[in-house]
Amino acid sequence: GRRRQADLPGDRLGPERRGAQARPPPAGRGKKKADAEAEEPAFPSAEPATWEFLIKRTDGNGWITDAQAGSTVDVSQVMGGGFPMRENLEGFKYDFPTQNVLLFATGSGIAPIKSAIESGQLNISGGRTCTLYYGVRTPDDMPYVARFGDWEDAGVQVVPVVSRPDAPCESGAVWKGRTGYVQNALEEDGVAIPRNSGALLCGVKGMAESVTSMLTQSGVFEGRVLTNF
């Protein structure tokens, strides 16, 4: 496929995880590589696009997490088809309108969920309730904490869940919130109006399978349990 080249501003990259957001599709992922050759963009525009990337730091990707301002990388087309929200959450396809949206993410799976929230396509302002269950290993593994307040203001109840609250954190953070796994939190809370609920999931396979099973067994239509792949 065609490739786009993106400038990487230094204030968006570093040892901490940063946001991964390519504005147009609210749910995709892309691949990146270094030392890209200059190339005309596939769809040139009058103003340069702004890209954010959520990058999980590993032993082998320092070339990107430590990139300096002005560095360039090759960016592939977005992977995944996105969450089919309009098709499955809007209207009366399942005879019951969607009045409640549940969001589930683990680790870096928060990136497409973040994009879905900030795209406005969840239509939360129309009277829907919305809850985000976000699971990580430790508080230090939780990006976008600074945005939680904005999401709450937009109508999203944020439920962070930490699976290893006793693990030492470099930041010195002490976790006093909910513990365990995302699926544990869902089991504890239940689904209030399953026939009128829809869900978006992105994260590890075990979470996705467990949550999907819980939702459908509670009465959520299988077609309203959406993934971005």
UniProtKB/TrEMBL annotation:
<feature type="domain" description="Oxidoreductase FAD/NAD(P)-binding">
    <location>
        <begin position="104"/>
        <end position="211"/>
    </location>
</feature>
<dbReference type="InterPro" id="IPR039261">
    <property type="entry name" value="FNR_nucleotide-bd"/>
</dbReference>
<dbReference type="InterPro" id="IPR001433">
    <property type="entry name" value="OxRdtase_FAD/NAD-bd"/>
</dbReference>
<feature type="region of interest" description="Disordered">
    <location>
        <begin position="1"/>
        <end position="47"/>
    </location>
</feature>
<feature type="compositionally biased region" description="Basic and acidic residues">
    <location>
        <begin position="1"/>
        <end position="19"/>
    </location>
</feature>
<dbReference type="Pfam" id="PF00175">
    <property type="entry name" value="NAD_binding_1"/>
</dbReference>
<dbReference type="GO" id="GO:0016491">
    <property type="term" value="F:oxidoreductase activity"/>
</dbReference>
<protein>
    <recommendedName>
        <fullName>Oxidoreductase FAD/NAD(P)-binding domain-containing protein</fullName>
    </recommendedName>
</protein>
